[in-house]
Amino acid sequence: MNTIKLITDKGMKNGQDVTAYLLTGPTVKYLVDGTVQEKSTMWYGGGLSKTFGICEKEVKQEDMQLFFQGFDLSGNKMRQNAGNPPKVRTLKDIHGKPRLDDNGNVMTVEQGARGGYDITHSVPKSVSLLWSMSDDQTKRQIEQAIKECVEDSMKRYEQLVEVRTGQGGKDVKQDNKILYSAHMQFGNRNLEPHLHVHVLTYNFAQNADGKSRGMDGCELFRWRKTNGMLFDADLSCKLKELGFKIHQTEKMTVQGEKTGERAWEVAGLHDRKLIEAVSSRHLEIAKAKGYGMSDQDAWARTRKHKDEPDFLELVEYFQKLNDGLREEFNIPSLEELKEQKDVMHATPNRQQFLERLHTNNAVVSEPEILQQIMQECRGHISTKKVRDIFNTITTSSEIVAIDPLQLHEDDRGASLSRVHTETRFAAKFMLEMEMNIVHMVKKREQEERWKFDVSKSLDIIKELEQEKGFKVSDEQRAALLNLTGETGGIGVLKGLAGTGKTAVSEFYKKIFEANGSKLYGCAVSNEAAAKLQKESDIESKSVAKLLSMLRDKKKPFKLTSTDVVVVDEAGMMDTAQFRALGHYCAAAGAKMVIQGDIQQIAPVGAGQGMSLIQDVMKTSQLTEIRRQKLTTDKDIAKAFYEFDEDGKVIDYGGPQSREDTLKKSAVVWAKLVKNNSVIATKDRDDTIKSIVKDYLTAPCEEAKKIILAHTNSDIIDINTQLRTHYKDAGRIKDVVQMRAVNNTDFFNLEVGVGERIRFTANDTDMKVNNGTKAVITAIKPGRKEGFDITCMVSQIDGTERELKFNTSQYCAINHNYASTIHMAQGQGASNVFHMANVGMADNSSMLVAFTRLTDGQYKMYGDYPTIDSVKERLKLDRQKTNVLASGVKGNSDINTKFQEAKQRDTTFKIKTRPSNLKELNIDEWAAKVSEPYIPDPNKQEKKQVKKQTLQR
Q: What is the DSSP string of 692-742?
């Protein structure tokens, strides 16, 4: 496994001096022929180590500090900003004034340059345990195997390193030499066996032209997970060469379902309880991950100071630890370990492999395919074999080659980055799905029976206006007439965030009903479906639930030719969901009304169906913002979009130039700053502290304010501080520790009376869904086990109902204070407190965050490094990619026909097509559904965590 963390030019990582910390590592001492021999655990590597002549040189702190600052050992600059002093920034408060510390001094923060990267290589726990119980000779063999695997890994990273030259850094040069120092360590912070190698990669590279520059680390991060898996593959092969065997494991959900996530351990040392017995550090991280943290956040949150003893003391300590383990576990000897057998789970067939490959993306890259290959064969495949399988798969008839990721012409230099020259791929069924959707849309446009009398529709609109005391705008009226009088079997209503798309539903519902139709609603999230039902009185369910009902073989839900299926927040639906639902509607002759905004939150699954449909048919749209009440707020919300001369929204149709993105981001940023919406903080802890303070003092009731964050780890820390305040104030009391569960892990959760909770799994008996909210009113010990919890559950109609459950039978709950951006789509609040995040910041997420605002204030918080990066990403487009829009490589017929279909007045028929790619039509599809290619939504409905599941 590989992790990559940034290091400043002062050699600081997470506030710690890595040069001092890593140089305290022990020198290895072994008894050879009766004498003690020492061996350093640190070494230099990379092409520049040979250029500098330091391959055999001792790694010293003063040299490392020079490298971090951007100099070679002679003091020559290796990058342009070498030796530049750090920037000093002044912190400002919510009113834009300098913040003062407790002594009345202005608070400032220093920002240094990037000094390098810590690329850490960690081995499976059983390998560390094997090393700790081995004799000196075997220890040296294992260390050498790890060192060789690290060096091979760094050769791959060196091949990935790029530097930028020319005006604006548009010319990208490869074939660079780098410098790194590797530091092998043997224990974790809890003094347990944990072999890992910190590879400090200094931020400069020398190109074949002889010039040195700062490196572009984008490719390092893009390939990090893949290269980490290749490192694991190399190591498993070397351990086999030493005579040991490999035991592959597969992670299961708490419901006992296979996740497809595999790992390996040394056979004979693979027992989970044994691993956990020497993995308190791992368990600390796992516990944090149980709350939903990422690997990196969990690592940082549980990190302690590390005072490592010298090597002989460490070995002696490990021996005592192993003696204790042998009293509890039957641990084989080295000889017995070599007599074990390899264990490997069954590999998927080709179809299953391709389905897993397209879990999240319609178009996949080389590193993503390599990851999936290694995921299936963990521990039993060499890197050469991985490459052989990759070549076999990508040249098969079941895979379609896709054009490289596009780059705007203004950003194209004489040479491009690898990511913009690398062929991408898609399974043929992904292309077929998209072709089918396009063909279905073009055919259903001709269904005249859905084009109702306009005058009758206008009368219905007028009657409802009088009844509700509400007058629709000209724009809304035009949209209503388009959906009910100008479209065939599919109608699309797109609109800006907060323009009242869901509110318009009540009007077209009346028109459809007056013409003999019955309406059914659905949305990806249960909350969005509940909102649609509340505002339009259309019976609504999640998309997964509706598809499950349609597929039910015992008692299927059947649509009729007069039904209308309304899809709300449709921008969050993936391609497979659109194709499946579209099939059932087309087979029955039911109309689909699709409403949403593709510029908001993207689908979790592969592709974006609404974007594909918008490409090939006429749509109506709403641009008059109604959610925000202040003109300045409406102006900021509109700044996240682009408009043509007629005031219509321009959907992103291709890559934007970096200059254009920066300019447009600067416009939005200026509006936010002018509106006092940006709060700069000292660091992450200060960010959370400021958010909680401002949230608690905001002059409105809690139901009208919301805290938003991008990651689960941020959510957890914000919730922790809020709960501390509420407990101190007596709002949360009688707290207990219960065993809670997410999809894959159990974790300890503290809850009390007055606690705001959210259910995280559907349960038909309790009548709760993933996302249902409640407040705990009573807790008492269960008669046999667990806790009996009484809570008031929020209903769709705004009322509450009492619910009682025992945590031994249902424990899928979590705190409900701060919310992720994804969960907040469709909501509104008077005051919005938003914790910014660089990695997650783009036009979609920032748009959704800001447009939750109604009539109060929006505030975005972050430290200066975060703020400086986020302000350049406000107009960054990272929408989901579709196969047809990406371009099928080497097939001009498909690409040309798709471009013609985008003119919206042509059919979509392919005369020339790839091998084995059938021409699809909706009539054929009505009788034949390729079910294996549609993810089973029932899996989302099976998360009813019952007592027998917990016992398992």
A: HHHHHHSSS-GGGEEEEESSHHHHHHHHHHHHHHHHHTTSSEEEEEEEEE-
Distance of alpha carbon 948 from alpha carbon 848, whole angstroms: 40
Strand 171-173, strand 163-165: pairing: antiparallel
Q: How far apart (Å, rounded) are the C-alpha atoms in residues 760 and 292?
A: 12
In a 13 Å sphere around the CA of 120, the CA atoms on its Cβ side amount to: 17
Instruction: Provide the H-helix boundaries in 574-711.
Output: 575-588, 609-616, 631-639, 658-674, 684-697
The residue that leads in pLDDT, 342 or 168, is 342
- H or E element, residue 426: strand 424-427
pLDDT digits (tens, 9 = 90+) for 256-278: 777 778 899 999 999 888 888 88
Percent of the chain scoring above 70 in pLDDT: 89
Distance in angstroms (rounded) separating the CA atoms of residues 694 and 835: 12
Run of H or E including 298: helix 295-301
Residue 242's nearest CA partner among 126, 178, 174, 337 is 337
Q: What residues contact 607, with CB distance under 8 A and at least 6 apart?
A: 361, 362, 430, 433, 434, 574, 575, 576, 880, 881, 882, 883
147 is written with which tokens?
A: 């060192």
pLDDT tens for 910-944 read 433 333 333 333 333 333 333 333 333 334 334 44
pLDDT at 367: 96
**List of residues 6+ apart from 675 with CB closer than 8 A:** 632, 633, 636, 858
CA distance 77 to 213: 9
136 touches 225 (CB < 8 A): no
Q: Which residues lie closer than 8 Å to 354 by C-beta, 6 or more apart?
A: 398, 399, 427, 429
What is the per-residue pLDDT across 892-917, written as a single tens digit (0 to 9) for each? 788 888 887 777 555 444 433 333 33
| Helix (H), strand (E) at residue 479 | helix 474-481
DSSP string, 871-919: TTSTT---PPPPHHHH-BTT-HHHHHHHHHHTTSSS----SS--TT-PP
Report DSSP state, residue 920.
P
Say whether 557 sits in a helix, a strand or coil: coil
Are the C-beta atoms of 906 and 445 separated by less than 8 Å? Answer: no
Give 207's strand partners. 176
Assign 863 to helix, strand or coil. strand
Map tokens 């503290």 to a residue: 750
**Pair of tokens at residue 291:** 């709350």
Phi and psi, residue 927, nearest 5°: -100, -15
3-state secondary structure of 547: helix
SS3 content of the chain, % helix, strand, coil (to 5): 40, 25, 35
What φ, ψ does residue 292 adopt, rounded to 5°? 110, 10
Residue 445: closest CA among 909, 905, 915, 949: 905
| DSSP string over 74-140 | TS-BSSTTTTPPPEEEE-B-TTSSBPB-TTSPBPEEEE--EEEEEEEEE--HHHHHHHHTS-HHHHH
| Longest Cα separation, the chain | 103
Residue 85 confidence (pLDDT) above 60: yes
What is the chain's alpha carbon radius of gyration, rounded to the nearest angstrom?
30
Task: Give me the pLDDT at residue 789, please.
Answer: 95
Closest CA to 706 of 569, 794, 834: 834
Q: How many angstroms separate the CA atoms of 330 and 327, rounded? A: 8
- Return d(Cα 564, Cα 517) in angstroms, integer: 7
Whether residue 301 is predicted with pLDDT greater than 50 in this model: the reply is: no
Distance CA 619, CA 630 (A): 28
As a residue count, the chain comes to 952
Best CA proximity match to 845, nearest among 868, 828, 870: 870
**CA separation (Å) from 147 to 185, 772, 851?**
11, 51, 51
Give the amino acid at 801: R
The pTM for the full model equals 0.85
Distance of CA 381 to the CA centre of its chain: 28
